[in-house]
Amino acid sequence: MRDNRLKLLEERTRYLAGEVERRVFTRWEESGIFHPEPEGEPGENFSIAIPPPNVTGALHMGHALNGSLQDVLVRLNRMKGRRTKWIFGTDHAGIATQVKVEQQLREEGTSREEIGREAFVERVWQWREKYGSTIVEQFKRLGASADYQDERFTMDDEYQQAVAHVFVKLFEKGLIRRDSYIVNWDPGTRSAISDLEVEQRRTVDTLYMIDYPLESGSGSITIATVRPETMLADTAVAVSPSDERYTRLIGEAAILPLVGRRLPIVADEYVDPEFGTGALKITPGHDPNDFEIGRRHGLPALTVIGEDGRMTAEAGRFAGLAVDEARDAVVQALREEDRISGSRPYEHDVPFSHRSGMRIEPLISLQWFCDMERLATPAIEAVEKGAVRFHPETPWTRVYLDWLENIRPWCISRQLWWGHRIPVWYCDPCEEMYVSETEPERCSQCGGELRRDPDVLDTWFSSALWPFATLGWPRQTPELRAFYPTNVLSTARDIIFLWVARMVMMGIEFTGQAPFTDVPIHAVIQAPDGRRMSKSLGTGIDPLDEIERYGADAVRFGLLAMASTQDVRYSEERVRQGQELANKLWNASRLVLLKVEDVEPAPRPETAEDRWILSRLERVTERVTALYESFDLSRAALELYDFFWGELCDWYLELVKPRLYDEQGDRSALSATLLFAWERVLKLIHPVMPFVTEEIWSFLPGERELLAASRWPQVDRSRFDEEAEAEVGRAIEAVTALRRYRDEVGAPAGARIPGRLVADGYERTLAQVARLARFDLQAGGEENGDAIATVAVPGGAVQVLRTEAIDVEEAERRRAERRKTLEAEIRRAEGKLSNKGFVEKAPPPIVEAEREKLARYRAELEELG
User: Fold this and answer.
1) Helix H or strand E segment including 122
2) Which of 357, 538, 810, 829 places its Cα 20 to 30 Å from the Cα of 103?
3) What is the residue-wise DSSP string for 781-826?
4) pLDDT tens for residues 723-746?
5) Largest CA distance in the chain
6) Residues 671 and 596 sit within 8 Å (Cβ to Cβ)
């Protein structure tokens, strides 16, 4: 069996990621390790709920990064022996999915209105059946070890029952109500959207000064506005009670130009005397702040802009015009009446729909609202008392708390056809309303037929139940008992409000427990030029293309390694580094596995370097485990890279090569130690790079289970060996110094340089230092004048003796050039670090890297003398 494996390994001279990844993933899935049995208690199990990707979606960089982060934690805990469930599924994505299907219908020459609601919803389900699995398969390409066997969808029957149950219970508690209120209206989707689905864009508009004549005929009051078309719905003018310019006018009235409506002049603390003219037109039907002022003063609310984004009949002669057209027409009419006394450009934030991209129209609309204050109180306490922890704590804890402490009612209804239909029915003749989890047969008062509310719930309402509804709640299922509450929620900062806070509120309200304990907020990957990644901007990078080019392990490593701060530019160099690491793992493993004897992996040290690598293995195990568990996955990935490439391959393998290649000697102890080290490092790297490590694992001697199902290593502190680390560390530093000297003086690669070692502590490592540095070293002796240079090494120095391989004058010239370069770099780094702005504003890892470079340059300059 082993001979066959070795023959196969010998044939595979290159690591072929594409072929390996598909084959290995099939093995994982068929083994059943992704699907844990619902046994035990949440404290002894581990679960994490994926932020459900939209059913419309394709894998983007945000998915790829967060998928990699979550998979590291899932694989780590599975290897620790915990029943591990990665709750997986997709979101119905109300608006996004409806837009996709409507576009499809338009291409067919029809529309949702023509085919009707029932047929439209059926078309959406057909679309989901055809395209909904795309992103699932893409997560598999990434290597995500989720529970695909138990995949959930936010519109499946059980989930719909959970959503209806929550709505009814909140209604019965008085937390859900129906009211006419001003909302963010998206003319593009013809639906209300929440504040969190609105994006503010910096826009330059024209600020117009419009003279409103006073009713008394004693002049006019000038207001400033960027939206003259909404003045047609004005019902008052407001001024600050402390503004002496207008004190005498409070209680009087103005006349609305173009319309003739009488407008009372009221005093309100909201008005900023410094903005514009200090007099504010009040339009309760088209501005949220004016709506509140209108309620305080009992003003009527008129609507001149309709849900289609056009002027209504209330707009009189401007009816039917699009908003932009109406603005131009109103300005022209005002100019004709000589009512515009001035104008200037004005830059300000303007709300746009994140969904359709159209400008938001604040409109008064009959909608369903959820009062959030009572739900927010326990969600605030959960974070303040440490039941839910953000990573990093600063600034995200404060961001979360600030939002909850100032929370507003949530408009939860949407004027869509695809989504969770609001479980409310009306009897129009009786004006009765029924709120129920199941459809009532008839009106209990008159026996007549009932009409269901046409609206659906905001997608984020159903998503707020994700951690527990996916486990079968409100039924007390084995899955719910075993895996709720979950342990971790990994997400980006942009949905702390949209999703994280709402899950905490709903989880506590309906289960009595916060839905998760730890919330790592991951980086946002930007385009290489610093702009946001976007297909429309041409800055998007498809992670599937990168996986095809470099392999999934390389993409995972690259994303984790680059994601050290909140906003990071995509680095193809980091992905290439991951690909190089995968290739190095493969090539070094072939070298070892084709040379070692067929023995049990075990620590059987014979020499100082054996004790050194075993000690270093235990230390890296301790560090990396701690980094994984504290969600510092970028540092963990880079630490593993440095250990495997540097300490294990560049140093230990080079140190033991003579013993490994000695086929006449007894290599059993070395083989056992090497295999032990190889097993350990494959386990440590597996969560980051699962495919290549699993493939190499299958070639290790003996019958073995999947690496993904093997046990995470426990740190054995008895193998910490400071003496061996000091001895071998000293030899490594000496080799490094001698190699640097060779480079500085341009010594030919094949030349062996004569030298005299005048230093302590090399009794057992002299031959190895000489071999690795390509020096002919003599030990001991006094310093004398025949040396052409002295290289400092730990414990003393190496005198370089005269040789034809080194041109002394050329060597000194090169060293002088290097001194000059180092001095310039030191000045640059010192200047940067003395810049207070850089130190305070740059990300801490960048500042720390600059300090490390400065220390390195100073040390090298000191060595050059």
Assistant:
1) helix 117-131
2) 538
3) ----TTEEEEEEETTEEEEEEP-TT--HHHHHHHHHHHHHHHHHHH
4) 999 999 999 999 999 999 998 889
5) 117
6) yes
